[in-house]
Each structure stands twice: as structure tokens, then as C-alpha cells.
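Aim 2 progress. For Membrane protein YedE/YeeE, the working sequence is reproduced below.
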Amino acid sequence: MADKKRLNSSGLGIQRKVGGGFLLIALVIYIVLYLFLPPLFAYSWLLGLALGFILQRSRICFTAAIRDPLLFGMTELSRGLILSLMISSLGFAALQYYRLSQGLSLIGRFVPLGWHIPIGAFIFGLGAAISGGCASGTLMRIGEGFQMQLIVLIGFVLGSTHGAYDAGWWYQLIGEQEVTHLPTILNWPKALLLQLGLLIMLYLFAYWWEKYQFRS
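Predicted C-alpha cells for this construct:
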């Protein structure tokens, strides 16, 4: 028993030393970026570290948010994803409405609805299920030491490179269709209320689904 405690304390000490070493390296990189490059690079480095820490501690994975309710009946990640969509919807609507009120154009890329969406969603979902996670989950697991995710990362890089190379052809293929913009059809308040209402319904359904799956 005493030997086991010594091993645990020794392992914890090594983890703290490794963590402290990485923290020191991150600080040195921040200082170098701040001194020799525009400050935006240093701030982006801090933002990336913060996002990585939040993703790792929250265990957020978009693939798991869709997979877990179906396979395990758990909807905690799903509800977290829905809440994030609610918050981003409010922020995005406020930003876009402000730009329109100032006579500016909408930001972002709007693509038309069509056959390409379900096909792309199916291919993406299939790849995410096989690889075991989405992009954020893959990066998080690599940071935790999962070596298999390195192969997934290589696939991400190759696929993204090929997609960027062919992006112009795809946008030209679907660009002739009419773009559906809900605020233009309903106006901004109605469109925002409709989206938030649907998200709230999904949240309540996810909460009920978990209770239903684990009912005694």
C-alpha cells in the first residue's frame, strides 16, 4: 500500500514538472512573439492556449455531441453545444444587424441550400465517426498523447489541402442557386426568435432524452 502511494505521488510529481515545463515554454513563446512580431500574433497565441484549455477541460467534441445521445443516451455535450449555438446566434445577429444599420454588407460566406449539404454532412459524419472525433477533439487528444489521432490529423491536412485546391470549382458549381437568408424572408427579430425557439426545443428534447434513457 505504501509503495502504491509512493508511485502515485511520484507520478503526480512528474506530471507537475512536465506541466510546469510546458507552461514555461508557452511563456517564452509569448514573449518572443510579442517582442519580434506584431502584438496580434502574441494575443492569438494566448487565445489559442485558452481555447485549448477550455476544450480539454470541458471535453467538448461536436462528433460526441451527436454520437453520445444515440449510442449511450447521454446528452450533456449535446446540450452544451446547443447552448453555444444560442449564444453565438445572439452575437452573430447583433453583429450583422449593426452592419446593416450602418449601410455595410453582411460578413461571412452564405451558400445556397441544395443537394450538396446532405452529401457533405454524410461524408463528414462518416469520417468523424471512423476517426473518433471532430477537428477540435482530434487536436485535444493529440495534446493528451493519443498517437492514433496523429494519423487522423494527417488526413485532416491532406483533405483540407485538397478541399482548398478544389474550393473554387465547388463554389462555382453551387453558386448559381439562390441563397436562402432567413432574416431577409422574415425580418431579423422573427428570424432570431424562430432560431432560438428551435434551439430551446432541441435543448428540452435532449434533456428529456437523457432522462428517458436512464429512467429507473
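Residues 96 and 107 are 7 Å apart (CA to CA). This observation will guide construct design in the next reporting period.
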